[in-house]
């Protein structure tokens, strides 16, 4: 069995901490108070703070001495080691408090120069983790210990595909890609790391954010799609430079990245053709 990396352990520990509190829709409000208004319709809730505290406690127990970029804390330097952890401790908080259970914990490790060391996305709904190391490809593991290779789907045409298009919030619906929206067999609008995990295991065929873009720390989720055999580019078809994103986070820079994360090259070409109209 492939060796599970640090990011697997971190993501699984955070997920197992927050999952019991979120399993009951009524009890969820116990962690639901807003702790920070980040502007632009983005808020932090107590569950985000709880998840982030689990992250930093776990890193300190393990003696991690590199840098950490977390959605809530920003850039934190724990030591001088040339390693960097990037974490979205609880992805899709706002949806959770509207009763939508589409959430995940995402943790990635890189060198400070942007070389991929490992990444893991823990599914809150299903007790499993999608993860990858630098040379192992992508895997999906249950928390009970079963592990298998994670592989993107072979669906080649938009009309047969289950696509996710990032249109959930109002500001993303100003210029919807109408020619693409009419095509897929199934269509979703909920984005976040959970979508990347589901593309990597073949349950969803692609993700499209062609205009507004994903923040840097969320864009890294799609490196796992690439490592599961998917094609991850910008709308023009140029590969996403994950290393450059990490180097930017190491300077405290968060930018938005327009992205097509599609299961395979044939479907990627068809998605781009539909976007072009």
Automatic annotation (TrEMBL):
It comes from the Bacteria. Its cofactor is Mg(2+). One of its GO terms (molecular function) is metal ion binding. Mg(2+) binds at residues 71, 88. SUPFAM superfamilies: Carbohydrate phosphatase. InterPro entries: Inositol_monophosphatase-like. Keywords: Magnesium, Metal-binding. This is Histidinol-phosphatase.
């Amino acid at each position: 069995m492939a060796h599970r990396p640090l990011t697997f352990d971190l993501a699984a520990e955070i997920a197992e901490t927050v999952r019991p509190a979120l399993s009951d829709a009524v009890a969820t409000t116990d962690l639901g108070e807003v702790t920070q208004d980040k502007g632009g319709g983005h808020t932090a809730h107590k569950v985000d703070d709880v998840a982030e505290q689990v992250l930093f406690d776990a890193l300190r127990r393990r003696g991690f001495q590199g840098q950490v970029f977390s959605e809530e804390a920003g850039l934190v330097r724990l030591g001088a080691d040339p390693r960097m952890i990037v974490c979205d401790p609880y992805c899709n908080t706002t949806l959770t408090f509207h009763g939508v259970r589409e959430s995940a914990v995402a943790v990635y490790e890189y060198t400070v120069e942007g070389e991929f060391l490992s990444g893991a996305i823990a599914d809150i709904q299903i007790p499993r983790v999608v993860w990858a190391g630098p040379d192992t490809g992508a895997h999906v593991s249950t928390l009970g210990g079963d592990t298998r290779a994670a592989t993107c789907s072979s669906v080649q045409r938009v009309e047969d595909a289950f696509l996710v298009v990032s249109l959930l919030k109002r500001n993303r619906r100003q210029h919807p890609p109408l020619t693409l929206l009419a095509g897929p067999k199934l269509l979703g609008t909920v984005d976040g790391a959970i979508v990347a995990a589901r593309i990597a295991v073949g349950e969803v065929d692609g993700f499209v954010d062609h205009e507004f873009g994903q923040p840097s720390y969320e864009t890294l989720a799609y490196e796992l799609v690439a490592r599961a055999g998917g094609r991850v580019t910008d709308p023009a078809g140029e590969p996403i430079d994950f290393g450059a994103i990490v180097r930017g986070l190491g300077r405290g820079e968060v930018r938005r990245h327009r992205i097509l994360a599609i299961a395979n090259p044939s479907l990627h070409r068809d998605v781009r053709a539909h976007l072009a109209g």
